[in-house]
C-alpha cells in the first residue's frame, strides 16, 4: 500500500475517522495492567466495555476501567453483553450514556440463550429501533444473515457486526460467503464480531472486504496476550492491504512464474 493510500484508507464510524481497524474488548485479562498493556500492543483506538460487568464509575469504591483506558486516548464503546431482552439492553445503553457524559456510540447485543450466545435477532431489531430513535449511534452484533444485516442498516445502525463463529469459540470464519454478501451489499461499515481465534482469522476477515474486526477472547485467552495483540494488529493490516491490492484469480492448474514462450533452446 502506498503512503497516499495508507493516509486516506481509514475506518469511519459515526462520522469519526480511525487509523486502526482492530477493535478490542477488556474482559478475561488477569488484571487491569495486563488489559492496558495488551490494548496498547494491539494499536486499537476503539475499546469496547461491558457496562454490566465493568465499573465505568457506577461503583465509586471499585477500580474504574477508565483510569487505565482514558477516553482522551481511546473511543470507549459501551456494550450490552449479558443482556437477553430488549428492555435490559436499552436500559444498559442509557446508563452508559449517563456515565460517559452523553456518549452516543454503543455496541448493541441482545443474546438468545446462555449456551450459544447467538443473537436474538427479533429482540435485536426491536432494541435497535428504540436506540436509534433515542439518538444513539448503534453498532450492532448480529448473525451472518445478509437479510438481517440489511434490515439493521435500514433501521439506521451505523455499523453491522456479524459473528464469524460463536462468541469466545476461536473457530474463525465459518461462513465466508455470507460475510462477503453482507459486505457487498452494505453501505455502512461491516465488522466481524466474535469467533476469531488467531491472526490468520483476522486477515481472512479483512481479505473478504470487512471494514474491521472486533475481538476479545482471542487476545486475552492467548498464552501471551501481548504478543497475540501484536500479531492481530499485523494480521488486520496485512489482510486489509491484500484486499486493496486485489488478489490474483484462483486457477485450477499451474501457471508458470517464468513462461517458456520465446525462449532460445
UniProtKB/TrEMBL annotation:
Gene3D superfamilies cross-referenced by the UniProt entry: Aldolase class I
Highest taxon of the lineage: Bacteria
Catalyzed chemical reaction(s): [ThiS sulfur-carrier protein]-C-terminal-Gly-aminoethanethioate + 2-iminoacetate + 1-deoxy-D-xylulose 5-phosphate = [ThiS sulfur-carrier protein]-C-terminal Gly-Gly + 2-[(2R,5Z)-2-carboxy-4-methylthiazol-5(2H)-ylidene]ethyl phosphate + 2 H2O + H(+)
Subunit text: Homotetramer. Forms heterodimers with either ThiH or ThiS.
EC number, UniProt record: 2.8.1.10
Location (main, coarse): cytoplasm
InterPro entries: Aldolase_TIM (IPR013785), Thiazole_synthase_ThiG (IPR033983), ThiG (IPR008867)
Pfam entry (one): ThiG
EC top class, as a word: transferase
Domain Thiazole synthase ThiG: 13-259
Keyword list, A-Z: Cytoplasm, Schiff base, Thiamine biosynthesis, Transferase
Binding site for 1-deoxy-D-xylulose 5-phosphate: 168, 194-195, 216-217
Entry similarity comment: Belongs to the ThiG family.
This protein's name: Thiazole synthase
The keyword Manganese is annotated on this UniProt entry: no
Active site (UniProt): 107 (schiff-base intermediate with dxp)
Stated role: Catalyzes the rearrangement of 1-deoxy-D-xylulose 5-phosphate (DXP) to produce the thiazole phosphate moiety of thiamine. Sulfur is provided by the thiocarboxylate moiety of the carrier protein ThiS. In vitro, sulfur can be provided by H(2)S.
Pathway membership: Cofactor biosynthesis; thiamine diphosphate biosynthesis
Location(s) in or outside the cell: Cytoplasm
Amino acid at each position: 500500500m502506498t503512503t497516499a493510500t495508507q493516509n486516506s484508507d481509514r475506518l469511519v464510524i459515526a462520522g469519526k475517522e480511525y487509523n486502526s481497524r482492530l477493535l478490542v474488548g477488556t474482559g478475561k485479562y488477569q488484571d487491569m495492567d495486563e488489559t492496558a498493556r495488551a490494548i496498547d500492543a494491539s494499536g486499537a483506538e476503539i475499546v469496547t466495555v461491558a457496562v454490566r460487568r465493568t465499573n465505568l464509575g457506577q461503583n465509586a469504591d471499585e477500580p474504574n476501567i477508565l483510569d487505565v483506558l482514558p477516553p482522551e486516548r481511546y473511543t470507549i464503546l459501551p456494550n450490552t453483553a449479558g443482556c437477553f431482552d430488549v428492555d435490559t439492553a436499552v436500559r444498559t445503553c442509557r446508563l452508559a450514556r449517563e456515565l460517559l457524559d452523553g456518549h452516543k456510540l454503543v455496541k448493541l447485543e441482545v443474546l438468545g440463550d446462555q449456551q450459544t450466545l447467538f443473537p436474538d435477532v427479533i429482540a435485536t431489531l426491536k432494541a435497535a429501533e428504540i436506540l436509534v430513535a433515542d439518538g444513539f449511534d448503534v453498532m450492532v452484533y448480529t448473525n451472518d444473515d445478509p437479510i438481517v444485516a440489511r434490515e439493521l442498516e435500514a433501521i439506521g445502525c451505523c455499523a453491522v457486526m456479524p459473528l464469524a463463529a460463536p462468541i469466545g469459540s476461536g473457530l474463525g470464519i465459518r461462513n465466508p460467503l455470507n460475510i462477503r454478501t453482507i459486505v457487498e451489499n452494505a453501505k455502512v461499515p461491516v465488522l466481524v464480531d466474535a469467533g476469531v481465534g488467531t491472526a490468520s482469522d483476522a486477515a481472512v476477515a479483512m481479505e473478504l472486504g470487512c471494514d474491521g474486526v472486533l475481538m476479545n477472547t482471542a487476545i486475552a485467552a492467548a498464552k501471551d496476550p501481548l504478543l497475540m495483540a501484536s500479531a492481530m494488529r499485523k494480521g488486520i493490516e496485512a489482510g486489509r492491504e491484500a484486499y486493496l491490492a486485489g488478489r490474483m484469480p484462483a486457477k485450477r492448474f499451474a501457471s508458470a512464474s517464468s513462461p517458456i514462450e520465446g525462449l532460445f533452446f
